[in-house]
Amino acid sequence: MPPTATFPRHIRAIRRTLFFSLVILTTFTALAMIASAFQQNGITPQELILLILYALLILWISNSFWTATIGFWILFWGGDRKSISRLPPRASDRIRDRTPARTALLMPIYQEDPTRVFAGLRAIYQSLLDTGRADEFEVFILSDSRDPDIWIEEEVNWYRMCCDFNAHNKIFYRNREKNIARKSGNIEEFCRRWGGRYRYMIVLDADSLMSGSTVIRMVDLMEAHPNVALIQSPPLPVNHKSLFARILQFASSLYGDVFAAGASFWQLADSNYWGHNAIIRIKPFADHCGLPKLPGREPFGGEILSHDFVEAALLRKAGWEVWLGFDLKGSYEELPPTLIDYAKRDRRWCQGNLQHLRMVFARGISGLSRLHFTMGIMSYLSSPLWFLFLLVTGFEAYVQSQTMPVYFFGDNIFPVWPESYAVEMTTVLLVTLAMLFLPKLWGLILFLRRGQRKSYGGFFRVLVSVALESIFSVLTAPVLMLYQTNFVLSILSRRSIGWPAQQRGDHRLSLKEATLAHGGQTLIGIAAGIVSYLYIPSFFWWFTPVLAGLVFAIPVSILSSSTALGLLAKRLGLFLTPDETEPPCVIRYLRANLDRADSIDEADRDEQRKIADPAACALHVALLPDRLVKKRTRHQLRALIYQVVEEGSGSLSQGDKRALVADPESLLRLHTLSWSRNAQ
Amino acid sequence: MKAAPSENVDLAEIAAWEQAGEHLVDYLRNLGVNDPSLLQSLAADCLSRARNRVSTGSVDDLLRRAIEEAQRHMDASVAKLLGLSPTRDAHKIAEARAALLFRATGQSTDFLFGAPDTEQARVPRLKASLPVPTPPEAPIAMPVQKIDFLFFKST
Q1: Closest Cα partner for A201 from A258, A273, A269, A255?
Q2: ipTM value for the complex
């Protein structure tokens, strides 16, 4: 159990009562309006389905809207006095934490681009050195990479970093032989082996970036609040140049704050963990977060994919506090550079979140933990619900269009005019749209209040950027809706996708790639357009924003992936963020590191050269563990070497390559062969 | 004992031998040896040792053996410098070799093959630059949690 008293209950109760009352009241009001329109002649089965779907969707929208609105209110009046960064210290001299006052910065990686990973890690370390408190930290690169080339490149980058910063006992690297349980297993292995050396760990992602001052601030907050097990910082997306990423970076920068502040308002000490850019107290984490395998097979059983939500729930269950430090600045991440990469990432997250279906029914966890799981599920389930809602609405519109009004009943000599509910329905539509778009207005108002005009490119340019971003989000929303619907359906039909590595670098999509990814959506859009235009023309015009998104999915996806367009927009002063116009030190360090890495001869990255390079080869041998090799394995390894000699390294599987590279004797032989064969 | 290339070996073979010699020099340069005279003498030494272990005419075999000789030579020098046993301390030697090849000491490896009194001055710097992949372990328990579910099978 945590050492000191937890956060006052009455504050939680008041805030949550207020928040949930607003959400539920809004939902019921909207439902009452739509139900009154439906009740005209009794509710038909399709109207009942529409009501249920709308109830679920408006609940979801209303939750998001009120989170943003409360967040806006808090930020407008200068912040939250009950946020973790403003609470008075609760540490007591009576209770001493006996664990070493040292923090591990963990960078778990799996098949990532080593150049980007180490450029980011160097930037974090440089920024940490600037604070003068780098001695309190040690860095761990926890590699799960399987590809032998990436493995060797990671080692070379690691050792160069140690040499450049003269940090030979401060920056560590290990490559796991078997990547059991993916990222959570990677961190678990760290805790089991080295957890006793540290009081805290700050978990990063391959594309994470954190300023030294933020890292220090997080450690100080943990020291001041011994009952806190985890503080999540809100990472701001930065650094990509494609139009897609720049639009999303702008949106996150302008509107992201209100959501984070609002979430912190009602979640308080029961916040969530997002998997990276967070500080964790190691002891309670080790005591309570050893994750089991879920019964059954994938995608619902097996290893827990989205481990972060579960770990936060287990910490909260054990009585520890989990906070979202919404006002912690200097925490960054990168977004997928294209719409397709974004959808691919969504596919993994979708599987991870749907796996939480049974976690909602876990015994002993708090109601708010169940809500966190439900919200994660709804992030993806809302798409098929919207899709179904549109289908049923279209069907209902068709039925209505085929119904002939009856003006005379029985012996009535006067006509009975059908009641019009256009006002109610339009109000419902406008309220729904307002709840979707008002958070953008909150962001704009805060932008004006903070006097950040220059760093966003000026008032006029921000207005244009918001308008364009809104159009872009309207166009991409139906595409993502279809993607996510497809993901949910395929996961529900028990098709697992594993956990593939992400493509994080900027790259323009080809026509072929975009057509393969969006062709089906375009055809659906055209077909739906023709059907609605022919059979329910009144519905067609309402439907056009959705249709436009689908019909233009291919060009929108290609154009938005363009770095040239992203940079053109930047030159025009559109979608600018303060982190672009006045980049903080850590981002400047990252850019300088990336520029330096780009200037390295491309040939140095060639696969053959890595084995041939005596330095890389010697380092790799030095890092391999001492191990006896069985005679049979030795013969198999020799056979693989002969295969390389006769058929080239391309004939080997990745597993074979890894087996060779993991054996010092085979590696040295390959190294020698690469030099002696080059002579011919 | 195998014979060295003699006058009756054809010209193409001589050219191949010479090319092997050049390649070996190139390899030694990659091992961080900079001094031209040291390069030539080391290459000649490695080739002459290698010639004793390969059959006549097998140039690629000769080069492979010569490269292995160069590696052995370097490892022996590193072992001598750090007072290690070439057989028992293979791992430590590999670490030192890596540090030297990455120029973590800031210099070429010429000194390895130089006079003993100048070598010893560099030992502390070399030792401080040895790659340390992980710190000493400080294990803690991380018990697997049991999660009970309503309506579903528990873990």
Answers
A1: A273
A2: 0.89
